[in-house]
Amino acid sequence: MPAAASPAKDSAVSAFDQPIARLTGAGPRVLEKLAARGLSTLQDLWLHLPLRYEDRTTLTPIRALQAGVAAQVEGTVEAVERGFRYRPMLRVAIGDDSQATLVLRFFHFRSQQVNQFRVGARVRCYGTPRAGQHGLEIVHPSYRVLEESDAGELGEQLDPVYPAIEGIGPATLRKLIVQALDRLPDEASLELLPSEWLQGLGLPSLRTALLAMHRPARDADLAALAAGTHPAQRRLALEELLAHHLSLRRQRIALQRHRAPALKGQGALAKRLQDALPFELTGAQQRVFAQVRHDLAQPSPMLRLVQGDVGSGKTVVAALAAMLAVEAGKQAALAAPTELLAEQHLANLRAWLEPLGVRVAWLAGKVTGKARATVLADVASGAAQVVVGTHALMQEGVAFHDLALAIVDEQHRFGVHQRLALREKGASDDAVPHQLVMTATPIPRTLAMAAYADLDVSAIDELPPGRTPVQTIALSGERRPELVERIRAACAEGRQAYWVCTLIDDSDEVVAQAAQTTFEQLSAAMPELRIALVHGRMKAGDKQATMRAFKQGDVDLLVATTVIEVGVDVPNASLMIVENAERLGLAQLHQLRGRVGRGATASTCVLLYQPPLSQMAKQRLATLRETNDGFVIAEKDLELRGPGELLGTRQTGLANFRVADLARDAALLPQVRELAERLLHESPALADRIIGRWVGGAARYASA
Ligand code: ADP
Ligand code: MG
Predict the structure, then answer these.
(1) What pTM was estimated for this model as a whole?
(2) What keywords are annotated for this sequence in UniProt (predicted)?
(3) Most C-beta atoms within 10 A of its C-beta, which of 271, 505, 556, 704?
C-alpha cells in the first residue's frame, strides 16, 4: 500500500469500540434503549446520522415568514390567551421590529410554561408557520425565553435532528452524540483509506465527513444532504460499501484456499444426456455449461451463480453439471426451496437420468422413518449418485459419501447460511464441494457486483426457441366476470389455466379474495371444467397429487396461492390470472407470469387489481405490460423499491447498511470494487481493519 495510506493507530480502532457507557448521561436505561437499536459503541453514535437539519443560525423577521417554511424568529410577547373551548389551549402573540405578529399555539403545556410568557418577555422560537385564523401561527414551536442578560448569540452550525430512538428524548440523544463526536480521534489516526485515493474522488477524510454530517456549517448544501449526494455522505457510503465488499471477497478467498475435486472427465455421461434430450440446448445454455465445466475441472471450489429468466432452462444445465460429478464416481446434490419445486426437479432428473443408469435419490422433510433411513444409507454409501431435496438435505445427520457438487436452485429463497451448510456437507480432508447457485430473479448488474462479490456470475440470457412472449393485461377487479369466458375459451382449446389468489384465508380487513372462496365461485360458474385448488396449508401429499394432476392435464383450471410462484413447469398452461396483483412486487409478478408462456402457444397473463391504484402499483403493472425481460424488470424494481427489498435481508444482509443506499450509491460500486482488489493484494491487514470497523461482529459469514 502506498505510504499515503497511513494506517490508523490502534488507539483509533479502539476508540471505535469504546462503549457508550463511558459517556455522561448514559445510564443503564438509556444504554438498554440504545442497545435495542443496535447502538453500543462510540462508532455507533458517530454513524447515527441526522435525518435533517434545523437552521438556527439566523433570525427571520416575522413579516418575512412563509407558511410551510421552517424558520427561527425572535419577538416580544404582546398578548397571552389561555382558552378551554374544546381542549386546553395556549396562544401567545409575539411581535418584532418588522411590525408583524406571529401566534404560537400550544395544546399541551404546563402552568409553569404559561407563567414564562409574560407580556414583554423576549422569546426565540423555531418551527414551521402555517396559516391560522389571524395570520401565521406556529403550533408547538421549540422555544426559549431569553433572560435580560442573554445576548442570544446565534450558532455557527445547523442543528442536527436525529432519527428518534424509542425511550430516549431527543435532547439526551443529542448530548450523547456530541460527547461521542468530541472523542473522535484526529484525522490521521481515524483514517483507513489512502488519502491520494480520496483526493482523486474529491471525497473528504472520515473525520471531516462525520463532522460535516453532524455539524454542518450554516452554508452547507442542504439540498445535497437531503438527497444523500453530499460528498460527506458519499465518503461514508464508500467506506461502508468497501467494507462489505471486502468481507464478501474475503469469504471467497477463504473458500478458495480449500481444495475441491477436479472433475476432468471426458463428459461422456453429460454427452449422453444431451443426446437423449428432446431439444437442442440454446446457445446460452451451452455457453453457461461450458463455463461450469471449466470451473469444475479446477482443483479449487467453484462458486458460480447462474442467473436465468424464468423458463430459460436452468435445470438441464444443472443436470449436465451433475453428470460430470457422477462420471467421476462422485455425488451431486440439488436443493430447492419448496417441496413442490424439489419434487418437480426430482421428476425431471429421474426422467432424464435413470435411463442413463444414474441413481437419483429423494430427501425431503416428510421422508421419515424407514424410508429416510434407507435414503440416508444410500447417500452415505454413495449408492445415491444424485440427491434431490429441500433444505432437509442440509440438515444434520445427512452425510454424503463423496459430494462433489452442491446445486442450489432459486437461492434467493434460501439464506446465505443454508447455502453454506450444504457446502459443508462435502467437507472431508479440507475438500469442499463445488457450488452452483441458480436464480430466476435477475438482479441489476451493479447490484450483482455488490451482492455477489463472493460468486462468479453467468447468465442464461436467451429463451428456448419457439416461445411466444406472454401478453400481459391489467384489468380492474370489476371485470372479473369477463374472465370466465376467457378461461372457457382457453380450456376449450385444450389449454390449461392458473388462477392465483394472494391469500389463503378469508379476512375481514383485507380485500383479498380467499382461494377457497374463489375456488367455490369458479367451480359454480364453470361446472363443466375440472377445477382444483392448491395452497400452502394443504397436506404435502394432497398438494403434490393436485399438481401432478394439473401437470398431466387432468385439471383444467388450477386455483392456487403463490405456492406455485417459483419454478413450476406446465408448458400446456397458457392463461394466468393473478388477483390483487397490486399487492405483489414486480419480481414476484414476473415469477408468477413465468408459469405461462412455456409452450409454443400464445399465452396471456391477466393482472386483476383493486382500484384505486397507488402510483407505485401503476408503474409496476405498466412495467409488466411493457416487458417480459427479467433483467429490465429487475432494473425497474430497483428503481421503484430500492435494493433492500429487492435482495431481501435473508439473501445478503445488504439491506442493513447504516449509511449506504445501493440505489443511490450504485455509482460508487465500480470504485469500491477496484479499491477492494487493490487493498486485498497490497494491504490485506488494512482490509481486515476496514471490515472490522463496519461489518465487525456482523461478519458472520467470514468463517465460511
Ligand atoms: P427455469 O430456468 O425457469 O428453471 P426450466 O429448467 O424449468 O426453466 O425449463 C423450462 C422448460 O423449458 C422445461 O420444460 C425444459 O424442459 C424446457 N427447456 C429447457 N431447455 C430447453 C431448450 N434448449 N429447448 C427447448 N426447451 C427447453
Ligand atoms: Mg427452475
Answers:
(1) 0.69
(2) ATP-binding, DNA damage, DNA recombination, DNA repair, DNA-binding, Helicase, Hydrolase, Isomerase, Nucleotide-binding
(3) 556
